[in-house]
Fold each of these.
Amino acid sequence: MTSLLLLVSCISVSIGVLDVNLSAMASGNLDQIEILLVSRLPRLLAVLCTGAGMSVAGLIMQQLCRNKFVSPTTSATISSAQLGLLLAILVFPQATLKEKTFFAFTMSIAGTYVFVLFMQRLKCKDIIMVPLVGIMFGNALGGITSFLAYKYNLMQAMNSFLVGDFSLVLKGNYEIVFLILPLLVIAFSFANHFNIVGLGEDFAKNLGVPYTVVLFGGLSIAALITASVVVTIGTIPYLGLVVPNLITILKGDKLKNSLIDTALFGALFVLICDIVGRLVIFPYEIPVNLIVGVIGSVVFLGIIFWKLSSHVPSVHTRSAQTTTKGGCGCDQ
């Protein structure tokens, strides 16, 4: 997968309205070098960091929440980050990128914590019910964001953050996504702790793992990754949902075994979608969130049907559940 990622990265750098000539750069052509350093290379790095970061964020959230349909998209993390970004623009109209990231991170982590509290109080923790609650909560936050944006005439400014697009990535306005790299290292270092917490509170405490600290620490990592992406690139749906599911189907649920593959495949997936968006109507381009959304929605539906079909209980199992749980399959 690494070799394929390098190959596709080289293809990505070569695509654009202006041609990039390696021989011209080798001979010292400053215009060619400027195109590479100011536009093409920053865009490539932003794509790779975004793909790897959002995929790993989704993997961590699925492990900690013990639900394969939880992700920054279905847990209100992205919607909370968008609300925080709007508040930053309202409170500090001249806010810097770092200040916007701080507001987005604060709101995204608060929204994620509220979602987890909702999830812990759900009596019926069905595999579909949990993300549905997250989607409804996220839509409620999205409604608040849209209301405030319309009221203070900021809808046009907000739309630029609602659409995931790499076309405006240039040197000097994207570097905040490099926050993802140390967060990925931290996530890999604590992968075993996330696995243990994913087995339940009692199990974690019996092994001496501080359940609450690890749980909210992992969610904070996912929230910070999401905030940095929303501020610099915008919203990219389904990425943190479909990529971790595809990798865990192939590699299993052990986080340390699948984390690197998730990061690599997420980066490759977004990079391919970005290239497709740039070539479909060349020299114009389609925002990457549209390409990822179309592909991701199809894959998401496929995963739902596969999960439901693989978890359909037999007649004897249903009878046992009806006898022991009152017939609803929920915790009493």
Amino acid sequence: MIFPVGMRNLRLRRIRSVLAVLPCLSVALFCIGLAQMSSADDIQAGRLKAEVACQTCHGIDGLATIAMVPNLSGQREDYTIIQLEAYRSGKRQHSQMSIIAQSLSDEDIRNLAAWYAAIEIAVTVPDE
């Protein structure tokens, strides 16, 4: 089909506009998918794993039972994943955490992060 020059330029601009938006749309859809990864099954699997691997130091509720051990309850899921992967790869070192993280699969790490992120915490600011 033959189009006048002006119409052809208009069609090319529309096609370029659509193509320019596609990368942004892809990123948005990827982020939505990540946000939906924490299903109830992941959280429950994370709780079960926490009972075995984390409870002794961090507590099943994410409240540490040992001095100098961080609380995990309410921690951002992505932060927990990054830290556990760093222990597992050796980028971050700790005598116990490095050993524990070595035994965790990618799925275990995601599930643990989902479990501790799902625990709601409340903050009370002291009176002035």
